[in-house]
Amino acid sequence: MLFRSNLNAAKTEFQETLRIRPDDVPARLALLQISSKNNAYADVLRYAGEILALDPHNRPARFWNAVGRMGQGNNDLARIELMRFLRDYPDSKDAQLQLGLLDLKEKKFKEAEVIFRKFYQPNSADARPLEGLIRMYAAQEDLDKAFQTAQAEVARSPNSKPAHSLLAAVASAAGKPASAIEQYQWLVSSDPKNLAYQIALAQVYQASGDTGHALETFHKAQEMAPRDGRVLAAIAFLLDAAGQRGEAKANYQRALQMDPTNPVILNNLAYLLADTHDNLDEALRLVKDAQRQLPNDPGLTDTLAWVYVQKNFNEGAIQILSRLVKEHPNDPGYHYHLAVACLQSGDKTRAKRELETALSNRPEKATADRIKALIAKIG
């Protein structure tokens, strides 16, 4: 499995190939598939269009053109393209499964089920039909049936990595962390060098509140991929949550050196700097860099507002946070940040109201302790 750093290296290599040989179709196909892995569907469509301009009957480009339409939410045109493709290649499993995913996306569950069941075979190396069935049950909010389906497949195919992987994912979604951990442990033991399995196991430990095992597993992942910024950032996040903020900051900074445009890393380091009142100008620069990539992300907006609060730009912070709490009324963090901005601007009445609202939304213990301390201070 290629991860972001590998994909970026491959992308650069194929782009250089196109610079030297502008009519190279295989390089464009490779770039198209890399774009798909990054969910960059505009690039998928661009490369598919360039290939079709060179070779109007290119089969892979026609298929990916439909995938790109679907990825951009143009379902009607995606369906037209898929039906045209299937008219010319009626036996294409890829196109039929893509049509099943399109049916699923449009909540045409019966039609989707017909396609997924047509191709489903127990103990098959191709898990896409089984995954389609499980996603269909999940889309209908029947996570128990999704879990049972994946569980039955593991019983039928006890040595199938795709089956165990699907069961692990469904168990996580269904709120069964013990089952998810069991499945990812099996996957890790069956393929100890697989970075994706190590990261997934660590994330399940983290979600279940087992910080110790999460850190231990992320450290194993770091040994496997010492240049993967995502792993360092995950370790930093856990260290921050554990109160080891100096170590967290150092890990975020190292992660950012490895992956300097990652908006999650940029945001998390910016928030840590703001929360510890450490280099607020740098925090502002980092969060604005992240926002250039994700301009409408509420978490980034909140970080920007928190930097403003720490810099005593309370009027701007209140304006931003007032909008956030209106759009996300059940987020305790946004209410807490708004309360601090109001308190700093002298509006104790609104600050107390926001603090009480934040507390009623059951924040994490560290935030709850801060809220209670501020309520006691206001009186």
Walk me through the topology:
Elements: H1 4-20, H2 25-37, H3 41-54, H4 59-71, H5 75-88, H6 93-105, H7 109-119, H8 128-139, H9 143-156, H10 161-173, H11 177-190, H12 195-207, H13 211-224, H14 229-241, H15 245-258, H16 263-275, H17 280-293, H18 298-310, H19 314-327, H20 332-344, H21 348-360, H22 365-378
Helix pairs in contact: 1-2, 2-3, 2-4, 3-4, 4-5, 5-6, 6-7, 6-8, 7-8, 8-9, 9-10, 10-11, 11-12, 12-13, 13-14, 14-15, 15-16, 16-17, 16-18, 17-18, 18-19, 18-20, 19-20, 20-21, 21-22
Structure report:
The chain is mostly helical. 78% of the residues lie in helices and 0% in strands. It has 22 helices and no strands. The chain has helices at 4-20, 25-37, 41-54, 59-71, 75-88, 93-105, 109-119, 128-139, 143-156, 161-173, 177-190, 195-207, 211-224, 229-241, 245-258, 263-275, 280-293, 298-310, 314-327, 332-344, 348-360, 365-378. Helix 3 runs antiparallel to helix 4, helix 5 (75-88) packs antiparallel against helix 6 and helix 6 packs antiparallel against helix 7. The longest helix has 17 residues, at 4-20. Mean pLDDT is 94; it is low at 1-5.
Give the CA-based shape: globular
The H/E string reads HHHHHHHHHHHHHHHHHHHHHH
How many helices? The count is: 22
Q: Spans with pLDDT under 50 lasting ≥5 residues?
A: 1-5
The structural class is: mainly alpha
